[in-house]
Design a protein that fits this description.
The chain is of the alpha+beta class. It has one domain. β5 and β6 form a beta hairpin. It starts with a helix and ends with a helix. Keywords: Membrane, Transmembrane, Transmembrane helix.
Length: 137
Amino acid sequence: MSIFVLITMRSFVLTNKALIIKQPILLQKRRIELVDIEAIEERKLSINSSHDFRDFNVYRGKQTYIKRSNEKDIKITSFETRNYHSFIAHVQNERRRFKWCLDDDKLCKLDRSWSGYGWMAFLLLMACALLYSLLNR
C-alpha cells in the first residue's frame, strides 16, 4: 500500500487558466483548462480499518470530485493534499465569473488542523523500511 501511495503521488498547480496535475515518479503531466470543468463536488471522506470484527475510523476528512465533460472525474482528498482547504477554495474562486476576496487567515487555520500528514509520514517510513529489507536480502 505505501509503495502504491509513493508511486501515485500527485502535485497540483493552479494557474488563472488551468489546473496542472503532475505525477513526478510516473513522469506524467496533465493540464485541465478551468473552462472545461463542469462542476466541483465536495463530500465527506472516511477511511476505516477492521480487525477482529471491529471497525476503526482511521481518518475523517473531505474528498472533492472535479467533474469534466466526457472525461473521467478527478478525485482529490484532504488526506493526500497539503493545504487542501486553501487549494479547493482557490480552484472554486478561479471558476467564478466574479472573484471573491478569500480570507487567507481562516483558510490557513483550516489547513493547519490535523490533515493526515502523520499517516503519510508513517506510510513513507513503511515504504522505506520495506525497500531497505528487500535490498538487504
